[in-house]
Amino acid sequence: LFQIGHRFPVYLDDSGVKIRFLQEIPGQNTHSRTDLQNVGSSVQLQCVNDIGGNAVISQKMLAQSFFGFDLHTKRCRIVAKGKKKEGMKHGYYCYFYPKQSIVASINFERFVARRIFSDKENKKRFSRSILSFALFGIAFGMAIMILSVAIVTGFKKEIRNKVIGFGAHIQLENFDSNTSFETLPIQADQPWLADLRRLKGIQHLSVFGTKPGIIKTDGEIAGMILKGVGTDFDWTFFKSNLVEGNVLQLNDSLTSDKVMISATLAVQLRLKLGDPLYCYFLDQGSSGQRMRRFYISGIYRTSLEEFDKLYVLGDIQQIRKLYGWDKQQVSGYEIMLENFDQLNELSGQVKKMTLHYSDSDSTMVRAVSITSRYPQIFDWLNLLDMNVWIILGLILVVAGFNMVSGLLILILERTSMIGTLKALGCHDFSIRKVFLYLGLFLIGRGMLWGNLVGIGICILQTRFGLFRLDATTYYLEYVPVNLQLSHLLLLNFFTLLLTFLMLLLPSWYISRISPDKALRFD
Q: Which region among 53-57, 242-246, 384-388 has the lowest average model confidence (pLDDT)?
């Protein structure tokens, strides 16, 4: 109907608001009146006939009615849409010519693919059940991939944060100290402190001291590390894992005898909040030992049992007294970073900065990152990435082969249509594009459902903790979830890309179909 050079009459309503199109249907003696919006958005029209009289056309109205048609209304005055059109007569006609064919402006391959995709008759075809299984495979695989990445990254993040909560990202200590917790002192007032605090990426600095000892009760005994902290210590991590009591309230002028122990130690030694805690420490200056009595003011649980049964938190003044240090001596500094991904970079900068201020008269300081202090833990966490890559690869291969088999069956079922299109002059590449578009539509629908299911489960787990874990085995009480937008975008992009590339193989089969045999195919 819409051919270049054909003339179409346009009817102007006397209200001046609606424009209707009188479409002449070949082979019939009737006219159908339809809205101009139904013509399409790609045809360019040109006014070739003066309206005459005092009739006016609203250019704004035409632009909205034609959805962006390129109109040349040189002979028409412009008025606001909806206002009364003085002098406009009912049933007055003007004519428009299309400047290009509407058929030439349609994406033919996408149009045919959409018709096949949305055709209700497809539900009765055999391929419908095959494609349903393929869609289910893509949706299920997409949901599993989202959950796998979210759970593994969440698990790594939670374990990593717990280890960092006990030892910070970077520790600065005496260069001559060995790997044990019996440390040599450094001066708290260091020349590099001001520059270190100004270093971009540093979140928090605090002093610390450690002293190994033994806890003894009436019927039990356990080794432990007394970690002394000062008033500058960040208690955020231990507040989030506090079970009973309160965190320590420390003062620079007074020495506190309050300590925090883990729930693991409390159960093992049969202690409770407010009980006295008798600890014994070796005296470096003699062959004897020192005993200290503390009182339990708080009990924490991180479920990281190797650390829970080891650390007791107390006042750094107690560490100084046990070692015989002055008030300006500490075991070292703990540095918390804003981003764990900057650990290696900032660790190198901290080392250079501390070495720059070192001289022959001062105590040398070394920087130890948390990954260097506990390499076995972080190597174990890095191994989990390999598991994720294997899972993602297997799921993508299975989903891709499901779509390949589904598309092959669809091509065989549409062999007659392929033969007809070839007989009408369609190129093989154009027909291949039809089925590639169809494959993209199917993949997109499967990915949409997969995203909805995967993200929905992640949100429910985050808010309600539906799935629990054995903390003694997995170090966590609930399945952790770390849902990030970047992970979702990358998963969707590569899933769409890889499955689309796999569809190129079955679409190549179309070029082997001859029109004469295809038209006789049943």
A: 53-57
- Residue 418 to residue 438: CA distance in whole angstroms: 14
32-46, 223-237, 507-521: the lowest-pLDDT one: 32-46
Helix, strand, or coil (residue 21): strand
What percentage of the chain exceeds 70 in pLDDT?
A: 76
Integer Cα distance of 12 and 102 in angstroms: 23
Share of the chain above pLDDT 90, in %: 51
CA–CA dist 74, 260 (Å, integer): 86
Of 197, 135, 154, 153, the residue nearest 406 (C-alpha): 135
d(CA 93, CA 379): 80
What are the Cα distances from residue 402, in Å, to 434, 446, 499? 19, 12, 10
DSSP 171: E
What residues pair up with 224 in beta bridges, in sequence order? 213
Going by C-beta distance under 8 Å and a sequence separation of 6 or more, which residues neighbour residue 210?
Answer: 181, 182, 183, 225, 226, 227, 228, 319, 331
What is the spatial distance between Cα 508 and Cα 404, in angstroms, rounded to a whole number?
12
pLDDT at 39 over 60: no
Which has the closest alpha carbon to 125: 347, 374, 417, 489? Answer: 417
Asked whether 94 and 49 are in contact (CB, 8 A), the reply is yes
Question: Rounded to an integer, what distance in angstroms lies between the CA atom of residue 420 and that of residue 411?
Answer: 13
pLDDT tens per residue, range 89-123: 333 334 443 434 444 446 888 888 888 887 766 55
Distances (CA, A) of 144 to 192, 392, 441: 49, 9, 21
Structure-token pair, residue 38: 């139904």
Two tokens at 300?
């924490």
What residues have CB less than 8 Å from 518, skipping those under 6 apart? 415, 416, 418, 419, 420, 422
Average pLDDT for 383-390: 90
Token pair for residue 63? 């632009």
Q: Cα torsion at 315, 318, 323, 328 (round to 10°)?
A: 60
